[in-house]
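User: Structure please.
Assistant: Input sequence and predicted structure:
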Amino acid sequence: MSLFFNRRPHHTVTWVIFIAILIFAFAVRIYHIDTLPLGIYPDESANGVDALQALETHDFKLFYPANYGREGLFINLQAITIHLLGNTILGLKLWSILFGTLSVLGMYLLSVELFRRRISGLISAFMLATSYWAINFSRIGFRAIMMTFILTFSFYFFFRGLRTRRFRYFLFSGLIFGLGLHTYIAFRVAPFILILLLPALILSYENFFKRYYKHALLFILGAFISALPMLYDFFVAHPEDFGSRSEAVSIFSPSINHGNLLGTFTRAFSLSLIKYNFFGDQNWRHNYAPYPILDPFVGTFFLAGFLFVFFQTLHLISLRIRYQDRDLRLVVNIFLLGSFFIMLIPEFLSGEGLPHALRSIGTQMPVFLMATLPVVWLYKKAKNRKEVYK
């Protein structure tokens, strides 16, 4: 946070702009929340029923098995606000508004940490704050809204820990990351981001294991502590609940693939990719159909950023193999590409309702980070040209 709250004049301007973005993000997420969207969706009402029953019985569950099963953290938080604000729309949706707004803060911090520029943080935060995709789910009482919050803050502390080598950041990162298991079924693939990131860390940091094994153990300890209650519930207390929903929509199910697994996978993967720029989620609960989930400007920047990161990664790998060049940009690029495709897995391994903006909500983090890169490039070009003509 010291990067942001700095008293030098140009940092004060950054502070003012970011606070304005954060206020705007909160305002568009809470404005007319009682009437837009009109009423509540069936899945929201199921959450509300469980929250009310938890308040009446004082039985706050880690996992609520009804409605295909839902992790309990968000429902239990909803129970708190319903208790405080009454059985109202705001009481049901306030946590979505708050997590959606705080995700903007997480996006700012992570963007600054990865790209080392405050302007990148402002751009990433603004894109998330103004995204229809993000705003829409911030106004619906679904637990999936916690995904971007968990991912951005967890990886902010992770990368800050890599840079500073301070143990506490790895502990914070692990505690937040493990909490993700209590959020939404799609988070279960998130550990693969770390697995994919490991080779890049080994290639880019000299003697990585020797320098960071204690930090890694602290991260694992933090993640284990916060994830332990859900791990116990899944594997010991109620193992039958672990895959109840995913099994019903998986492309590996014969009732979904109809004996053509490859064709079903190809179709699902293609639809998952084109929703950002060409053909969006057709469910009006999730998206303004039939348009893509990104507006034309952000969508174009995302495509440009994705292609830049992809080809730069190939170049950096080539330099590492040929000249043993250690470049930390490789870690950032593998993180961006890896987190995008891994958090896309819950969507393209399902065969129902595709494209699906909700199941892929975990891709918000890499999508807006990659979309930031071309804008920063344009900003630098404009700034350099201005200095030339001074």
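The radius of gyration is 21 Å.
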